[in-house]
Each structure stands twice: as C-alpha cells, then as structure tokens.
Amino acid sequence: MMDFPVLKNDYILKAAKGEDVDVVPVWVMRQAGRYLPEFREERAKTDFFTMCQTPDLSCKVTLQPIDRYPLDAAIIFSDILVIPQALNMVVEMKPGEGPVFPSPLKEPSDMSRLDSPKYVSEKLQYVFDAITLTRTKLEGRVPLIGFAGAPWTIMAYMIEGKGSKTMSNSKRWLYAHPEDSHKLLDIISEATIDYLVGQVKAGAQMLQVFESHAEHLNAALFKEFCIPYLKRICDRVKESASWLGFGSIPMIIFPKGGHYALKEISSLNYDVIGIDWTVDPVKARELVGPNKTLQGNLDPCALYGSKESIDAAVKDMMAKFGKKRYIANLGHGMYPDMDPENLGAFIDAVHKYSKT
Ligand SMILES: Cc1c2[nH]c(c1CCC(=O)O)Cc1[nH]c(c(CCC(=O)O)c1C)Cc1[nH]c(c(CCC(=O)O)c1C)Cc1[nH]c(c(C)c1CCC(=O)O)C2
User: Fold this and answer.
1) How far apart are CA 308 and CA 111, in angstroms?
2) Ranges for the Uroporphyrinogen decarboxylase (URO-D) domain (predicted)?
3) Nearest C-alpha to atom 18 of ligand 1 is from which residue?
4) Helix 151-160 vs helix 178-202: angle between axes, to the nearest 10 degrees?
5) CA-CA-CA-CA torsion for 329, 332, 334, 335, nearest 10 degrees?
6) What pTM did the predictor assign?
7) In the predicted model, what is the mean pLDDT of the chain?
C-alpha cells in the first residue's frame, strides 16, 4: 500500500458512512471543466483524451477547482469512455458535439471486435498514475474520488456511438437481443470491477458509478439490465478493497433520471445514492430509508440565476435533505458557460446553511 499525506478533511467520507459531521460536505460533478478559464487554457493546448492520458495534465486540472474553492472532495479528471477505449473501441471528443465513436457496435456480432476485459487495467495504467500523483499533490487537503460509468450507460454509448435523444439503438438490443445485451453488460462489468479496484490501489478514497442513462429505462428494464451489474460491481469492488487492506471503500451510485428505481437501488450496498434535480429529497429519503446517504441535487441551471436566488435555492434544498447522511452537490454536472463565481456562491451557501 502506498504512503500518502495525512488526510485533513474527511467530512465526505464520514457523511458517506452515516457518521455525524459538523458541516455538510460539498463537491460538484464536472467541477474540473470548461467553465473554468484555467481549464480552457490547458484544453486549448491539448486534445481531451490526451489530457486524460497524461497524468501531469489530469492532476493539474483536477486540482484547479480545489485551489479555487473550499470544496470537500476532488474527482479525478478522466472520462467514463476510457473503458470502451480499453475494450478496443475508438472514441473521439468532437468540439461542440461531445464524444463520438466512428464505428459503434451495430449488431451483436460486432462484439467480436472487443478485447477481453482482462487487459483493461493494464491499458488504463495512465488513470492509476494520474490518481497516485493527484492524491500526493492534494497533500491531504480533501479526499480523491475515482469513478466509472455504469454498464448500461457504457453499453448505450458503445451502441449509439454518440449522445442520443431516444437511445433507440441500444434499447433495441435490450428488447431484441436480451441475451447478447447481458453478454455485453457482463464484459463491461468485469472491466469496470478491475478498473475501480485499480483506482483504489492507486489512491482513490471514494468511488462514484455514473448511471447517466437511467432516464431512458423503466423499473422493469432497470431491474433486469442494471441492478445485477450495479450489485456485482459494488459487492466485488468492496470485497477486493477490503481484502487488499483498504477497509470499507465508500461507493456512490448516481442514477441520473432513475427516480423510478430508487427503492430497488437502496437494496444494494452502495453507501451513497445521488439524485438529480427532478427528485424531491423528502420523497427520495422515504424511498431509500434512513441507512443511505443522499447526494445532490440542485438543478445545475440554478447557477444561471443571481447570487441571491442561488442562496435561496440552497437554503430550500438543505431544509429538505436535512444535515444527516447528506452530501451537497448539483443534480448533474457544471455546464461550460456557467459563471465560476456562481459556483462559489453555491458552495458558500451550503456552508452557511450547514451551520445554522
Ligand atoms: C456521460 C458522461 C461522460 N463522461 C462522464 C459522464 C458521466 C457524467 C454525466 O452524466 O455527465 C464523466 C466525466 N467526464 C469528466 C469527468 C471529470 C471529473 C469531474 O466531474 O470534474 C467525469 C466524472 C470530464 C469531461 N468529459 C467531457 C468534458 C468536456 C470535454 C472538453 O473539454 O472538450 C469534461 C471536462 C466530455 C464528455 N464526456 C462525456 C460527454 C457526454 C461529454 C461531452 C459533454 C460536453 O461536451 O460538455 C461522457
């Protein structure tokens, strides 16, 4: 096990475990990103995936929001789509368009193009190196979060080849090729387990699994095509981390648009459930019960409002969540055209209402 600087702020780890904290911890999704001028300056010089593959650059932009704001966690700068890349698919980041796969999986026979998940950890060593470097450079200021996409979300990208309004290509697989869908989800899950365990070994102190495409499914599809894989990932990663001497690694599941599945998800071993802004925090608490930490859920677009309106929205949000078993966050990521000052107003408001 590596030797890292002593952790000075463990609020988020405590909140994840349900321990009492005197302030509500806060971080935001996409906190390292284009809304920050210092990120855009780096990004202007280097292609997106080259940045991900260069530990010095990944570390540098991961630390940018930590240097600027009193956040309670850092999240490693990378992308969920490094898993399809490690399975032998080409993914490019097109300006103004987002990620694009030039040759997506069209039919189940295309799965023969995929490499074995056995080699994923070797191929993603650059992420582990970025994590180790960043954990060192953080000097114990805050914990470092690692992450991966959930299997359905990754499968949908591999089949659609880009963002999609309907996900009808990938959903066609679920209805027309259920067995092959399970085969693909199994491959992605095995890759993801090794990848997340590798992140823990490299220094990640908490993990988030992004089920960003939950909104396209329903309770029945989620139960068949998501739950078993989310369960396998959580149980196997926790078991390996514990066996390797890292104790109980806190894990967050973020099912974006998955309001219909919250109760089912609460039966899994994730410590934290992230909710998007469409879910009422009081209803979410009823659904998941008292033994899970909730994370979220301000509408990111609230950051387009005035500082006063952000303050009022945070006050309302925090009254609904309460201060126990709660991690403050947005209901999804920052957008590139947001004012960095307004993120500061969000974080200040969380601190203000977490004290009173
Ligand atoms: C679906 C998804 C992806 N990537 C990710 C998800 C899950 C979260 C979600 O639901 O948004 C996860 C992700 N992507 C990125 C991070 C870094 C850590 C952080 O949150 O700060 C994380 C955790 C950096 C990024 N990932 C991306 C950027 C912007 C790309 C750029 O700089 O050109 C960043 C900073 C690109 C990306 N990557 C992806 C998309 C759809 C896009 C385009 C979005 C856009 O253009 O704003 C796939």
Assistant:
1) 52
2) 25-34, 145-161
3) 77
4) 120
5) -160
6) 0.98
7) 97
